[in-house]
Amino acid sequence: MFQLWSEVQSLHPISLSFLSILFVLFLFKLTRSRTGKLNLPPSPWKLPVIGNLHQLGTLPHRSLQSLARKHGPLMLLHFGQSPTLIVSSVEGAKEILKTQDLNFSDRPRMNFQDRLVYANYHLAFSPYGEYWRQVRKVCVLQLLSQHRVNSFKSVRQEETDCMLNDIRKSISSGSPIVNLSDLIFSFTNDVTCRVTLGRKFGRDEGGKKFFKIIKEFMYFIGAFNIGDFIPSLAWINNFNGLNARMDKNFEELESFLGGVIEEHIQDRKTRKFGSEGVEDFVDVLLGMEKDGSIGVPFAKDNIKALIMDMFLAATDTAAATMTWAMTELLRHPEILKEVQREVREVAKGKTHITEDDAAQMHYMKNVIKETLRVHTPGPLLIPHQSREDAKLQGYDVPAKTRVIVNAWAIARDPAIWEEPDEFRPKRFENSSLDFKGNDFEYLPFGAGRRICPGIAFASPTMELPMANLLYHFDWTSPNGEVPDVEEGLGIVAYKKSPLRAIATPYRV
């Protein structure tokens, strides 16, 4: 053995290079012979090195829908060196998210996780295992339970009142045109800040800086990162500025979140928890760190990761959904009048609407449901990854294959939905369909083990402000223009241009 190695070392460099090339060709042939025996899902033609990356387009969920119509609802694409199964059917989604959920419950490791250290502890991105199971259990039982969500009812009510007052002030100052996009985003951010961090950060320079940090972090999650698909080219990020941006964002997050945690540690020594007399999320997590009740290693970095999870799950998605709902209502005045009629009949002259009132507004809830279908906030579910080789509808899926469920394409499938591109809230009347992960033709929050745990938090955060906006004001588009429905680029499908509307106070 040692003699053979000595002989190899003594070879001329050219000969050694030739042998290396032969060895690589042998491995390539061996790999092809093995994969040739597999019955892989159909694939579109791909380019060398980049594979099918050039076919993604600026709105991947739409591009992937078009490709699926040509190649089938189970389609194998190659994004650089990453084989990725695209699922665009109810049957495929059910197989991935229910029947074989355990095998497809892993997550591929993303390049940004290597730069933002505590990103490894995110509930959304951490691999399937004991840490993920224990942390998810904590989030579901301690942070996002119905009891915990109900304990923050007054926060949602107060922030809704603040939003309504901002609109009234704008009208009284002679500016009836309201930027609903900004207004709604500020509402969801303020609610999330108070529930998670114990206070909101306002709209001064400090508050604007904080929101900019959060937005930047969300950008990295959805941004194209060459290192995720072609690891050997990850060095390019040193020259295109992406790594420098990530490093700067990590430093800013570290400084901000570290300050929030330290502030809570000091306050816990002298105060009762939260301005509403209940613990915020940071207090709960600090208590778990102290008593070790979570059952896995848990420290400050874990707390920072879960804080960010709350903002990722609770802010952009809820804001995008409410903005799209108001957009569609302005595009369909007859539906707007109909839902306002219901809201005002339920309220019956009250000065403000409560969550108990909103719970009785079934047509308004159907408006939100239809918005989640037509404008699925996360059109492509966060990628799954197979843990072992699998068989899927007759096709072979090798271990470590990424899997993306195109929830948006399923929600627009004409084989399932009548006139799928039309906004028709009444399609949910007398329908048992819900967004809790039991109906695979409707997956705005995902399904299975990796379903978004914040559904109970999201519902009242959307319903209460929507009901109040519809109750207290009549809404029309400036100059009678129909709002556009152009989507922006990102992990969340938000409205690209701000939604502006004229608010006219409704006399109760």
TrEMBL record:
Recorded GO MF terms: heme binding; iron ion binding; monooxygenase activity; oxidoreductase activity, acting on paired donors, with incorporation or reduction of molecular oxygen
The GO biological-process annotations, alphabetized, read as: secondary metabolite biosynthetic process
> Which InterPro entries would you find in this protein's record?
Cyt_P450, Cyt_P450_CS, Cyt_P450_E_grp-I, Cyt_P450_sf
Entry keywords, A to Z: Heme, Iron, Membrane, Metal-binding, Monooxygenase, Oxidoreductase, Transmembrane, Transmembrane helix
Pfam families in the record: p450
Q: What positions does the entry give for heme binding?
A: 452
Q: Report the superkingdom from the record.
A: Eukaryota
TM regions (residue ranges): 12-30, 217-236
Gene3D superfamilies in the cross-refs: Cytochrome P450
Cofactor(s) listed in the protein's UniProt record: heme
In the record, the note on similarity to other proteins reads: Belongs to the cytochrome P450 family.
Q: What is this protein called?
A: Cytochrome P450
Q: What is the lineage of its organism?
A: Eukaryota, Viridiplantae, Streptophyta, Embryophyta, Tracheophyta
